[in-house]
Design goal:
This protein has a single domain, classed as HIT family, subunit A, CATH 3.30.428. It is built from three helices and five strands. A five-stranded antiparallel β-sheet has the order 1-2-3-5-4, covered by helices on one side. The two termini are 29 Å apart. The structure holds guanosine-5'-monophosphate and zinc ion.
Length: 137
C-alpha cells in the first residue's frame, strides 16, 4: 500500500520516533498524543484493520502492546494504561493500517473517554443482539 502513512513509517520513508522494533512489529510515538507517551503498535505488513489481520499477527501486536504498557508504568511512572484499537471510520479509525494505541494514564490527567452507558429497551433487545452475534461467529 504505497499511499499508507504507516507503511511509509515502516519503510523509513517518513520519520517516526521508534520505541520498539522486531521482525513483524514496529512501535512508535503517536504524533498527536491523547496523553504524552502515547504509542502506536503496528504490524510491518499492511492490514486495513483487525478484521483483515491474521491471528498470529494479532498475538504479536498485543504481546508488544503489553510490553509497552509495562514500560509506560515502569519508565514513565504511569498509574494505568489504556489499550485502544479502532476499526473503520464509524469507530474513529483515521489511518487504515491496523494499529493498537497504548496510552499511559496518570491520576488526574484530565482525559475522559465520555463513556455514556445506554440502556436496552428490555432484556429481549439485548438477547436478540447476542443471538445475531452468536449466529455469525
Ligand atoms: P486512529 O484514529 O486511526 O485510531 O489513530 C490514528 C493515530 O495516528 C492518531 O492518534 C494520530 O495522531 C496518529 N498519526 C497520524 N499520522 C501520524 C504520523 O504521521 N506520525 C505519527 N507518529 N502518528 C500519526
Ligand atoms: Zn499500511
Amino acid at each position: 500500500m504505497n499511499n499508507c502513512i504507516f507503511c511509509k513509517i515502516v519503510n523509513h520513508e517518513i520519520p517516526a520516533t521508534v520505541v520498539y522494533e522486531d521482525e513483524d512489529v514496529l512501535v512508535f510515538m503517536d504524533i498527536g498524543p491523547i496523553i504524552k507517551g502515547h504509542a502506536l503498535v503496528v504490524p510491518k505488513d499492511h492490514f486495513d484493520s483487525v478484521l483483515e489481520t491474521p491471528e498470529n499477527v494479532l498475538a504479536k501486536l498485543h504481546r508488544a502492546a503489553k510490553r509497552i504498557a509495562v514500560a509506560q508504568m515502569n519508565g514513565l511512572g504511569a498509574d494505568g494504561v489504556n489499550i485502544v484499537q479502532n476499526n473503520g471510520k464509524a469507530a474513529g479509525q483515521e489511518v487504515p493500517h491496523m494499529h493498537v494505541h497504548v496510552i499511559p494514564r496518570f491520576e488526574g490527567d484530565g482525559h475522559h473517554w465520555n463513556w455514556n452507558a445506554k440502556k436496552y429497551v428490555d432484556s429481549n433487545e439485548m438477547i436478540g443482539l447476542a443471538e445475531k452475534m452468536r449466529n455469525n461467529l
